[in-house]
Each structure stands twice: as C-alpha cells, then as structure tokens.
Design a protein that fits this description.
With 77 residues, this protein is of the alpha+beta class. The protein has 2 helices and 3 strands; from the N terminus they run αββαβ. A hairpin with a 4-residue loop joins strand 1 and strand 2. The radius of gyration is 15 Å and the shape is flat. The structure holds zinc ion (ZN). The site of zinc ion (ZN) has 7 residues, from loops.
C-alpha cells in the first residue's frame, strides 16, 4: 500500500508570508517574515505595510544591508 505524504505547505501559508533577501557580502539568501519586518517598521516610523522602500533589512550574518529579491504586496502603496 502506498502512503501519500501530505505537504506541509498549508502551514507556511497560514500566516502573512515571508520575503526573500539577498546579501551580496555573504552571497546568500535568507528570508524574513512580514511580521518581523512590520515590527521593525513600527519601531522605525510607527506605521507598517507591505512595502520595503523605507525599510532596511540587514543580513543576520554580517550586518550589511540586504536586498529584497521580490517586492510582494497586495497593495502597491
Ligand atoms: Zn551577509
């Protein structure tokens, strides 16, 4: 009998999702949850949203500024 394993995908999509970032310095990618980003935005400017143009994400390894690999966002503003 063949057992089909269920993918865990549901779990990952159950909250707000993540953004991928790339660090030139370490030549690696990492991801960050929107919830974490929003925490930072709230501390920096007091408002949050699905945007990254005024949010600076640093590489967890070297502390250099990392680039977002994607600009997701249901609302453009
Ligand atoms: Zn780095």
């Amino acid at each position: 009998m063949i057992q089909l394993k269920k993918k865990k995908q549901e779990r990952e999509h159950e909250d707000f999702g993540r953004v991928m970032f790339y660090c030139k310095h370490c030549n690696k990618t990492f991801d960050m949850e929107w919830e974490t980003i929003w925490d930072m935005q709230e501390m920096t400017h007091g408002y949050v949203g699905y945007h990254l143009y005024d949010t600076y994400i640093c590489c967890p390894d070297c502390g250099e500024l990392a680039e977002a690999l994607e600009q997701p966002g249901p609302n453009p503003i």
